[in-house]
């Protein structure tokens, strides 16, 4: 155990120089959240189908992820996701949206993504890398069981061929059920 | 017992025998006394005249804390709260009255205590904890938190950690200001004692905090079963799409009745469609503001524990809680204390700081080569960031292509040209270590 007040006295004896060195670093401390995100970003190990874009390299809290699947239904397309990391990271997950309009069972037309680790199953031990892999997996294995775009999910379950055709049509720039999808082929 | 015979110079207005109970504890040793404890009137005057406490939050816990600590005899206290009083606070935040609604919590609470308890000297700060700097927090002996926010806990945790100076050659650290953190959620609560740098800190145990309840998005979108699912549908999916209050993406304000009414109506519509019952205006506000009903008795228990720990820490009259107590009275009463362990990889309290002397005309490239080649570092591919005048700056990050391209030109710049000065702290992340190293620069000509 420490004795608070003997410590307090020592602090006083140190006097000016103690507070002086404190003053030099004033306002320059890096928060634990900032350290954690720096580490996450520095240790990103992206699969070759993914790359990141940082509009402002000094701001590690806002960036884009581009996924270009090289197999599966979405091969040849390019999909952009926005990442926003809040001050309570990693207690809270980053906010992630799909900026490319996509015909996908687990992504709705407004870009909301249904991926468990983005919401109900997020844990502080997960990293940005976990989310990147989760998103990439969504393109390899779209999951019709937990749909966000119900039409797409129904199609995938009812007729895989037709679903695949729909995916290709939308990626080339075309309409499904009156909704226009912009071209997103590489 | 003659109490006031050993009291000296305290302000008037004390009631008879005001100090008799404290004296019984503080003027003699007991079987549970801490070895550092010095029995005698000095310790009593310590409580009354010398100790300065900072109470963060003047809400459910804060009102209890201020009352407990002031009646216990602590006089010099500061209280910080950014909130104003809401009508729904009045059932348990007993320092507030109906005509205080709308006023600052800190101010009203401080005034009440100062009026009611002779000698009390509570200073109110209507603002955010982030408004104050190291010099402000350094004046306190103990900081007691009655917060409902994890962000705020993490911030004050980082602040007290930055005040600690590690002791050299096995000496104890200096500048240690303990945090006593209380928290409640309905019938559950915790109290913990943090000796920054010495025992588990907030960041060490971050995964102890219950995560926010988030429903799967697909359930909200297509298979709602609960009234909450319908409210979340209106909040998460409809609001951004319809942006009902115009302007540039107005964000939801849980205290704006128009916003809540809009969400309530949309949620009700959806609930009717799915034959779900239970969507009410009150539940809507509860879900949007993530309100967990506060229970006055839980607050009272947790605040009492925190006040007791403050008393033990400041007087050394008994061993403090080591270091985490949980409490649950949802079914019967359950309480348990255990020692939360320090996380050796903690990004806040186990941060490694190393001072590095380097020429200010040396280039960033030279610094990176030094970190790679020097035997004591032996890094592989370090990424460096810093903070200049409160703004984050990425100096160089080799592993992320877009950042590498945007920061490559920094390699040829001198440390001086990059805006680095003596005392600048670099965050160095490298695959050779589970946590970043903080390098404190000492620039030489």
Walk me through what this model shows.
The complex is a heterodimer of chains A (186) and B (445). Helices cover 36% and strands 14% of the residues of chain A. Chain A has a 4-stranded antiparallel sheet, covered by helices on one side. In chain A, strand 1 and strand 2 form a beta hairpin. The longest helix of chain A has 21 residues. Chain A is elongated. With 445 residues, chain B is of the alpha/beta class. Chain B has 3 domains: 196 residues, Rossmann fold, CATH 3.40.50; 73 residues, Arc Repressor Mutant, subunit A (Orthogonal Bundle), CATH 1.10.10.520; 90 residues, Roll (Structural Genomics Hypothetical 15.5 Kd Protein In mrcA-pckA Intergenic Region, Chain A), CATH 3.10.290.20. Chain B is 32% helix and 18% strand. Chain B has 13 helices and 13 strands. Chain B is globular. At the A-B interface, helix 1, helix 2 and strand 1 of A face helix 5, helix 6, helix 7, helix 8 and strand 10 of B.
How many distinct helices of chain A? 5
Write down the Rg of chain B: 26 Å
Q: How many beta strands in the DSSP annotation of chain B?
A: 13
Please provide the ordered H/E string of secondary-structure elements of chain B: HHEHEHEHEHEEHHHHHEEEHEEHEE
* Low-pLDDT sequence parts of chain B: 1-11
Give the N-to-C terminal Cα separation of chain B.
68 Å
**Structural class by sheet pairing and helices of chain A:** alpha+beta
Strand order of the largest sheet of chain A: 1-2-3-4
The CATH architecture term of the largest domain in chain B is 3-Layer(aba) Sandwich
Element string of chain A (H = helix, E = strand): HHEEEEHHHEE
The named CATH superfamily of the largest domain in chain B: NAD(P)-binding Rossmann-like Domain
Q: Count of DSSP E strands of chain A?
A: 6
Which term fits the overall shape of chain B? Answer: globular
Q: Considering DSSP H and I runs of 4 or more, what fraction of the residues of chain B is helical?
A: 25-40%
Number of domains of chain B: 3
CATH fold-level topology of the largest domain in chain B: Rossmann fold
- Uncertain parts of chain A: 7-28
Determine the strand fraction of chain B and express it as a percent band: 15-25%
- CATH fold-level assignment of the largest domain in chain A: Ubiquitin Conjugating Enzyme
Number of domains of chain A: 2
GO molecular function, one term (chain B): NEDD8 activating enzyme activity
Domain E2 binding (chain B): 356-444
Pfam families (chain B): E2_bind (PF08825), ThiF (PF00899)
Active site (chain B): 218 (glycyl thioester intermediate)
